[in-house]
Amino acid sequence: MTKEPDPQGGALRRFRDPAYRPLAGDLAGIRREIDRIDDAVVRLLAERAMYVKDAARFKHDAFQVSAPARQAQVFAHVRALAARHNPAFNGGFEGLPEVVEAAYRALVAGYIASEQQYFGQTEPISPSTQDEVPE
Ligand SMILES: O=C(O)C(=O)C[C@]1(C(=O)O)C=C[C@@H](O)C=C1
């Protein structure tokens, strides 16, 4: 079959697990929920990006921008979060920690590339002239 699925069509299959509970009546309903969630995810990624940009002010050089030990910490953290947030209903989502870690590896690579660019837009300051820290 080389045709895209019909968003308005009825279900074509069912899970063999008798306890499985469907989340929407059709594929259009599923996609509406996915679009809603993507909006929230991307809004948070944009908020995260601004903190990554600001992090450049606290680094001496390109190695510090890359901060590999911190990267490893972030990947382990999001993996653990994915395991914790994996829903208990409908059997959860198998391999969610791996999916989330892979996404974060791609995301952080992009964030680092931009942070390196932003680092190039900074200049060193002496401690006495440092920016004021917000409360
Ligand atoms: O924590 C930092 O130092 C950051 O710059 C943030 C961040 C991240 O996206 O989480 C980005 C670049 C570094 O590789 C490590 C982590």
TrEMBL record:
One of its GO terms (molecular function) is chorismate mutase activity. It comes from the Bacteria. InterPro entries: Chorismate_II_sf, Chorismate_mutase-related, CM_dom_sf, CM_II_prokaryot. Residues 21-119 form the Chorismate mutase domain. It is an enzyme of class 5 (isomerase). Its EC number is 5.4.99.5. It comes from Caenimonas sedimenti. GO terms for biological process: chorismate metabolic process; salicylic acid biosynthetic process. Pfam families: CM_2. Keywords: Isomerase. This is chorismate mutase.
